[in-house]
Design brief:
alpha/beta; 5-stranded parallel sheet
Amino acid sequence: MHILIVEDEVGIVKFLQQGLQEEGYIITTASDGLMGLEYTQKTSFDLILLDWMLPKMNGLEVCKAIREKDDTTPIIFLTAKDTVQETIEGLKAGANDYMKKPFSFEELIERIKIHFRVQKEADILTLGSIVINLNKHIVSVNDNVIALTQREFELLTYLVRNKGNVCTRNQIIEDVWDIHFEYDTGVIDVFINAIRKKLNLKIEQDYIKTVRGVGYIANE
């Protein structure tokens, strides 16, 4: 698991980095809020330990900016601020947890484990009778495992994550294929047809619908 520590106090950073690495975690550190935010935009982290009082951009601003990007990475505030109002502010900004300095390292470890456990349990996506296990990279329909290619898995997962919203062909090409220039989006139709065939759903289970001239929508 990869943890980002955004903290400007060198002593705390060294303490956390050493302790967490001994627990087997991969650690990246940022010494100011702006640097921390930039890291989250370039790298996928499993959890963020975020100080409130930071140079350049405070923790509250960083937290809000992360959530505005629809990034659901668990965030734990580590801060000396401990009034009820400040706690509420942090949670409203999108933080998942809050620990007052000085804190027990053993308690921090347990809280981290809880967030990872909750996160793992949440890594299941469903669309009607379709179940996607993101951890095991398995798609099943009525408990029958469906063999999808990597690209088919990514495309189906993308549509289910955006369940209820129309995904245009251009959005899919950019977000799933990571292509940001003019490209023949007809390839998407080929993959959608392959996915539908493999899922072998009944007519009333047409969970992936074509929005003519626009793209696709996953809906139950």
